[in-house]
Prior knowledge:
With 124 residues, the chain is mainly β. It has strands at residues 2-7, 10-13, 18-26, 31-37, 44-50, 55-57, 65-70, 75-80, 89-96, 113-114, 118-123.
Amino acid sequence: QVHLAESGGGSVQAGGSLRLSCKVSGRWYLSMGWFRQAPGKQREGLASIQNDGTTMYADSVKGRFTISKDNGKKELYLEMRNLKPEDTSMYYCSSWPGSMGVLLAPNMWEFNNWGQGTQVTVSS
Length: 124
């Protein structure tokens, strides 16, 4: 069993930065990642990381967002820079037993564990 708890969301102006954290309780899965979902839109995979530290990113955030983890603390992070109004969304932490590529395969998300989310609002 696993419990994921996100924190670090908030309101920021365009061009600003935020750092999201996700505390993991219970099992530490092979891959973890960050997703977001805005009202009326489909959930979107943003960044994932495997146990060996390999990462992958969606094109929409590549170069602006950085995913990292601290195995000792059992925490996952998402550093977000140069935020844009279109980044406004609920951000979710997730873990799953498959490879990091599951990030971009919505049909495989049925085995994902999800946190409750943290809201990020970017104003222009």
